[in-house]
Design a protein that fits this description.
Helices cover about 35% and strands about 0% of the residues. It is an all-alpha fold.
Length: about 70
């Protein structure tokens, strides 16, 4: 399981929980981006928005929480 203790943002921070691609909305593209990041196949634009569980760790728990918010 991938864990990242990175909470700093790029200059594109959106302040929308789950908006990891910083496009101003939380949608399926954010879920895909976080999934790829956790699998080690991508990057995130917004680490703070990715920390949906607010535990300063980006991991599968954040992805699960995002999926619950999306449905």
């Amino acid at each position: 399981t991938s864990k990242t203790n990175r909470t700093e943002n790029t200059s594109n921070e959106s302040n929308i929980s789950g908006d990891v691609n910083s496009d101003g909305k939380f949608d399926i593209a954010d879920l895909v981006m976080l999934n790829r990041y956790i699998l080690g196949n991508g990057t995130l634009n917004d680490f703070i928005s990715a920390d949906v569980c607010n535990d300063s760790v980006i991991d599968v728990y954040d992805l699960t929480a995002m999926r619950k918010l999306f449905s």
